[in-house]
Write a structure and sequence with these properties.
heterodimer; A: Aldehyde Oxidoreductase, domain 3; Aldehyde Oxidoreductase, domain 4; five-stranded mixed beta sheet; 28 strands; B: Ubiquitin-like (UB roll); two-stranded antiparallel sheet; 28% strand
């Protein structure tokens, strides 16, 4: 493993030494741009192989039922059908949680049973069987010939309801783990006769003296919040194509957030060594956390093994909604106390997150993120992970943090109002900074919360008056940890002086360009002189998921180290050619020169052209697992107008401010800020899984599951704050996730300041707002008091 | 000596002691020192000779991936917290 270079500690602050970079901080055209805008880029479903079969999945019509029998003989007899599989075609797996090697713990039996139900179906849309046929139509017809006998059970759809005594039990042997370290869930021993539960885990974090903290408070506010399940809404449905070769080797083409995770999970579920599988990463049309788990990959592989032919399986949009993982619905209670001077003295919160059919909601990160923007001496936060008869949740952009921030930031807004403080002054007074101890225990290193709030306070949006009735402005902040993990990069010097770069992170949001820019900066080249590509699992070393906002940090760093490796070798080669000592050669701005002899100099291109006959090619490599990802904060300002007749909310103006550490490619940072804001606005105003009483999602299309479009929103304004992360060579902090954390509270607070009515439930649809206005005769016709800038 | 913070739900095992100082140069020695003082705590932290899956160790505010091999210094703060997966 390559030893990472000692990071340069940057001067903190907005400037961050922008002039010291030549490539970092610029906005080159993305390397994959042409292919994508011309339709040449190949996504998950763009694979067509000779003799390829088409797979389709039979899904449960019931939210909760025992599977009594599956008879697929008629389906198998249909001409054109080549194979049918059920859960019996998967390996028998342990119910003991394991780490697949990249930090995401998995209970293999739960994972397997989610891909194909074993004895019980646990949500409407749960996969039960799969068919491979010579075309999709025959495969679809065959699904109708599979006879599944069910014993239907009552479902439980809500986390709070599932915790009550007498609630339907999903897993007969699930035990409540009162230990955060065995999450997500586990199964009791066979001889354990204790009562089963839908609560997979319960954990608590505590700091200071809560009783004392509330006793010191002059004002205490306690509120209950509720949020619904929402989907990531990636535009590209899941698709996997597998080809099982006669030698037992398998090739899988799929669009995912991690080719290595797809490989390892598929290998585990099918009981084969992961070295037998090669996963080729296709371009990805959005993931947002939802493509970090296998769904179709093991199914296509098992069908290919059975038929001896390649099999492609793709989901419809309805299947994506009903068969993959949204994020959790939640119930959150927040109690906070504050002194008259605005200082928060105590906070107490309980978070109940619905995990869906199997344990593993994001309640843990929700609990850990919730109070992180603040320095609170006395706090307690507890979390419950509860299984219910809905889709097994998956990660969704800063998993767990948005719902938690929605609850916390609405209460903070109310507290600021109660003590008569500007909400940004309130946050400056209570904001977390370097040295603040979090409720989970560790203290913050250098962070940019205060700098970000100050930037917001100085922003033209915050200073602008709000004009017109029923209009209001809201603000909210949020936190996300940012992740890291193993990452690899291989960079080869071409004879024309360019670089061929292979790295292991599926490209979401322009990360390939960011990787190339790390290399270009080190070697004094232009970004377009580095040609990046994403390697398959046989081409590049293990690289953890494109998730946790980790890629610019970890893969960027790996590319930086690979470039440093090239630099060392190129200096040595120049020294060899000149017959001098390497330490007498320096590299500056992409040129090599002898330190004291001005006659000895090479451009990078000149030296590159001489490599093959002076010792052979130069290849830089790096395999790293760096620490120091550095957390990030975001702050959003929303102006809204509420139509008192219809309850419709129009977002008039929206600004996002975020600490990026150092923006390698500012356009892509801004894109992440805008994208997260838009998803969060949808979560705030429209999006929800709408279930009937039997547990069927009845809005499983983009027509009925209402996501905002460009026609619904104004331009999302962005301001990047750069408080360099001392843990990265260029000061990078992850930027992809925190942008979705503040919007729900920002919009809710804006609605309050427009109407005088606080809403404690998402989504805040026109109907909800109409009801709230009708129930509150004191509703005002705005603009709100906030910001003191009435129009 | 390194300061070790006890997770809230493990406080019954330490009879309410929230923070201890132990002689240790790595997390493995931290766990052994805790076990010597609070019998039973090790099995809540370690499984099959490794830190439990999804358990992370924060040393001086940094989450490392070396598990029991993670080094701790004389002035270190050690916290056991659930690991986080992102989206």
């Amino acid at each position: 493993m390559t030893t990472t270079s000692k990071p340069k500690t940057k001067t903190n602050g907005k400037s961050n030494g922008a002039t010291e970079f030549k490539v970092v901080g610029t906005r080159p055209i993305r390397h994959d741009g042409l292919e994508k805008v011309t339709g040449q880029a190949r996504y998950g479903a763009d694979i067509h192989l000779p003799g390829m079969l088409h797979g389709r999945v039979l899904r449960s019509p019931h939210a909760h039922a025992w599977i009594k029998s599956i008879d697929y003989s008629k389906a198998l007899a249909l001409p054109g059908v080549k194979a049918v599989i059920t859960a019996d075609d998967f390996a028998a797996l342990s119910g003991k949680a394991i780490d697949l090697g990249e930090g995401a713990m998995t209970n293999p039996r739960f994972l397997s049973n989610n891909i194909l139900a074993k004895d019980k179906v646990l949500y409407k849309g749960h996969a039960v069987a799969a068919v491979a046929a010579i075309n999709p139509h025959i495969a679809e017809e065959a699904l109708g010939l599979i006879d599944v006998k069910y014993e239907v059970l009552p479902p439980v759809l809500d986390g709070k309801e599932a915790m009550k005594p007498g609630a339907p039990i999903l897993h007969e042997r699930l035990f409540t783990a009162n230990n955060p370290f065995v999450r997500p869930g586990g199964l009791k021993d066979d001889n354990d006769k204790s009562a089963s539960s839908n609560v997979a885990s319960h954990f608590v974090f505590e700091i200071g003296d809560l009783k004392k903290g509330f006793a010191e408070a002059d004002i205490i506010i306690e509120r209950d919040f509720e949020t619904k399940a929402v989907h990531q809404g990636y535009i590209e449905p899941h698709s996997a194509t597998a080809s099982w070769n006669k030698d037992g080797r398998v090739t899988i083409w799929c669009s995912s957030q991690g080719q290595f995770t797809m490989r390892d999970q598929t290998a585990q579920l099918l009981g084969i060594p992961n070295s037998q599988i090669k996963v080729i990463q296709m371009e990805i049309g959005g993931g947002f956390g939802g493509k970090t788990l296998v769904y179709l990959e093991p199914i296509a592989t098992a069908l290919s093994k059975k038929t001896g032919l390649p099999v492609k399986a793709s989901m419809s949009r309805k299947e994506v909604f009903e068969g993959t993982g949204p994020t959790s619905a939640s119930h959150i209670r927040v109690k906070m106390g504050v002194k008259k001077n605005g200082k928060i003295t105590a906070a107490d919160a309980t978070l109940i997150y619905a995990a869906g059919a199997f344990p593993g909601s994001p309640v843990n990160p929700g609990v850990q993120c919730m109070l992180s923007p603040y320095d609170i001496p006395n706090a307690r936060v507890e979390g419950y992970d509860v299984v219910v008869n809905t889709q097994k949740t998956a990660a969704y952009r800063a998993p767990g943090s948005p719902a938690a921030a929605y609850a916390c930031e609405c209460v903070v807004d109310e507290l600021a109002e109660k003590v008569g403080m500007d909400p940004l002054e309130f946050r400056l007074l209570n904001g977390a900074k370097e040295g603040t101890r979090r409720v989970t225990g560790p203290i913050f290193p250098k962070i940019g919360y205060i700098e970000m709030v100050k930037a917001g306070k100085a922003h033209a949006h915050w200073k602008a008056p709000i004009k017109g009735p029923w209009r209001g402005r809201g603000v909210a902040t949020g936190f996300w940890f940012n992740g890291t993990g193993p990452a690899c990069a291989i960079a080869s010097v071409n004879s024309d002086g360019t670089i061929k770069l292979v790295e292991g992170s599926p490209d979401i949001g322009g990360t390939r360009a960011v990787a190339a820019m790390h290399v270009a900066e080190v070697l004094g080249l232009k970004a377009e002189d580095v040609h990046p590509s994403v390697g398959d699992t046989d081409t590049i070393g293990f690289t953890s998921n494109t998730g946790g906002s980790s890629v610019a940090f970890k893969t960027g760093w790996a590319c930086y180290e690979a470039a440093q490796d090239i630099k060392r070798q190129m200096i040595a080669r120049a020294a060899k050619i000149w017959d001098v000592k390497p330490e007498d050669v320096e590299m500056k701005d992409g040129k090599f020169a002898h330190k004291s002899d001005p006659e000895l100099k090479f451009t990078f291109k000149q030296l590159a052209s001489r490599l093959l006959n002076t010792g052979g090619p130069v290849v830089g490599r790096a395999a790293i697992d760096p620490k120091g990802a550095g957390g990030a904060f975001a702050m959003h300002i929303a102006d809204v107008e509420v139509d008192p007749e219809t309850g419709k909310v129009q977002v008039l103006r929206y600004t996002t401010i975020q600490d990026a550490g150092k923006a390698i490619h500012p356009s892509y940072v801004e894109g992440q800020m805008q994208g997260g804001a838009v998803q969060g606005i949808g979560w705030a105003l429209n999006e929800e899984y709408f279930f009937n009483k039997d547990g069927a999602m009845i809005n499983s299309s983009f027509l009925d599951y209402r996501m905002p479009t460009s026609l619904d929103l104004p331009m999302i304004d962005t301001e990047i704050v750069e408080v360099a992360n001392p843990g990265h060579p260029y000061g990078v902090r992850g930027v992809g996730e925190v942008s979705i954390v503040p919007p729900m509270a920002a919009v809710a607070n804006a609605i309050y300041h427009a109407t005088g009515v606080r809403l404690y439930r998402l989504p805040m649809t026109p109907g909800v707002i109409q009801e709230a206005l009708a129930a509150n005769s004191g509703a005002k016709n705005g603009p709100g008091k906030r910001n003191g800038k009435k129009g | 000596m390194p300061r070790v913070f006890i997770p809230t739900l493990l406080l019954p095992l330490t009879k309410g002691v929230k923070e201890v100082e132990v002689e240790a140069r790595n997390v493995r020695q931290v766990v052994e020192a805790l076990e010597a003082r609070f019998p039973g705590i090790k099995e809540r932290l370690v499984e099959d000779g490794q830190l439990r899956p999804n358990l992370a160790v924060s040393v001086d505010g940094e989450i490392g991936r070396m598990g029991l091999m993670e080094k701790v210094a004389t002035e270190s703060e050690v916290h056991f917290i659930p690991a986080i997966g992102g989206g």
